[in-house]
Write a structure and sequence with these properties.
292 residues; alpha/beta; D-Maltodextrin-Binding Protein, domain 2; eight-stranded mixed β-sheet; two-stranded antiparallel sheet; WH_DNA-bd_sf; DNA binding; transcription regulation; transcription
């Protein structure tokens, strides 16, 4: 069954005349008649009754028309989707972002990207590192923005975007806010707001234990907004990536001795071919002026 044969049958059904149908399809009448007959032979029953120059739809043909029309409609829709995909129009791009990444700088990049690719449909979902790794592997997202670790580098294809240091965040008027930078030792015994969702939390806690720095967690939360709100309310200080601090009024100072930083990367699955939309995102990431 060929698409041209289906179109011949539909045109003949509209005109009930092979000559007019051939003119609509821009083919000769013998070619159209031959195509209609070939389709009837394949279906095993006549679509038309021939009465001299006149043709009429058979009952079988009348029952087949909706199905044949559906085939043509689906083919046309597929061609539109393929064209849109090539032109990056209405092409879905699914991006997962680690929940601890500050949204302001990333939003600037995504806003510029969408401005330059207005027909592209971008969806962004906030996920944990474990969810990002699973959804990347399963193909549920096209790329992830997350902290680059040795495990990620060994498993996925990575494209570093920027580095950011960890800072200490204080409420207004905190005595340590007068310092230009804060050492870990200076924080021993201070009230502390614990960021449970921090992917580097275990490493920071291990350093504190090694240096015998005692931290007293007054509040714990997996939500970045709650952590910042409780620091601002005076509950205690928090360790945060510098680009994640968004609440006005907070004091932030670099953490030194030891300094802690992380590298943020765009992560994809190795060996998986980029779609045109994903390829456009990679080019945009290469050309963007990331912080630092």
């Amino acid at each position: 069954m060929e698409m041209s044969q289906i179109r011949y049958v539909l045109a003949a059904a509209r005109h009930l005349n092979f000559t007019k149908a051939a003119a609509e399809c821009n083919v000769s009448q013998p070619a159209l008649t031959k195509g209609v007959k070939a389709l009837e032979d394949e279906l095993g029953a006549p679509v038309f009754h021939r009465e001299g120059r006149r043709i009429l739809l058979s009952d079988f043909g009348r029952s087949m028309l909706p199905h044949l029309q559906h085939i043509v409609d689906e083919a046309a829709a597929t061609q539109v989707l393929a064209q849109n995909f090539r032109l990056l129009e209405k092409v879905p791009l699914r991006l997962g972002v680690m929940s601890t990444i500050g949204h302001i700088r990333l939003a600037r990049f995504l806003a510029q990207f969408e401005k330059n690719h207005s027909g592209l449909e971008l969806s962004v979902s906030e996920q944990s590192p474990a969810e990002l790794k699973n959804n990347l592997s399963e193909g549920d997202i096209d790329a992830a923005v997350m902290t680059l670790t040795d495990e990620i580098a060994d498993t996925f294809r990575t494209h570093p975007l920027y580095d950011e240091r960890y800072v200490v965040v204080f409420p207004p008027e905190h005595r340590l806010g007068r310092l230009n930078a804060v050492t870990l030792d200076a924080l021993s015994g201070e009230n502390y707001v614990d960021r449970l969702s921090c992917e580097m939390r275990e490493m920071v806690m291990a350093v504190c234990a090694d240096k015998e720095v005692e931290l007293y967690a007054r509040f714990r939360s997996e939500r970045e907004d709650w952590v910042q709100a409780m620091v601002l309310a005076g509950i205690g200080f928090a360790f945060m990536p510098e680009y994640s601090v968004t609440l006005p009024g907070l004091i932030q100072r670099p953490l030194v001795e030891p300094a802690v930083e992380r590298r943020i990367a765009l992560v994809t699955v190795p060996g998986r071919k980029f779609s045109p939309a994903m390829d456009a995102l990679m080019r945009a990431a290469n050309g963007f002026a990331w912080p630092g």
